[in-house]
Fold this protein.
Amino acid sequence: MEQIEKSFITLGEAFQKHPFDFYKENDITCFLYNELKQGFPNRVPVKLENGIERFNAFDDSHRMFCERVHTEAFCTSSDGKENRTDIVVLEDRQQVIYPKSQSMMGKIEPPFLAGIEIKLAYGTRSSRFSGISSGKGVTTDIVKLSFLSEVFSYSYVVIVDFFEKRNLSMINQQVKFFRKVGFFYAGLDRYELILP
């Protein structure tokens, strides 16, 4: 998906220029959120499902729209697990919001255009890469998103790494194996998009 992958490249360039702007995972999330909002600027209509408390404000049709980019979205995977995804890009259609409880808004109805998991790694001691061969580290995010293939048209894992010359051959194999999840890597020496 061109707009999404373009935002990854912008992230990679920004990280190489000013790495300590991305010292925390939330810094990466905020950066990508802003880039994606520029790539998907239109708002989509919202419909509230039964069970959500109604307020007079919801009678104003101008308020019943939302942006297409959201963070911390909850989705149910094909194995029945409830998963949180760092960034979600909504499809360009009416979005149905279901109640979490009788008085609080909850989940937006899938499918979604894209789901993005974000990780930050710090050099040689990073568990993000050390556990790949045993199915841990960044592998858990690739597997998680592969189980959400019915929820997202496009899925990506983004990792920003305070390291140089990282060997990504095992990641490349996993992306090819799972075939539904792209991977964007931004290190101190390079950035790279690995697509299935």
Q: What stands out?
A: Residues 119 and 159 are 5 Å apart (CA to CA).
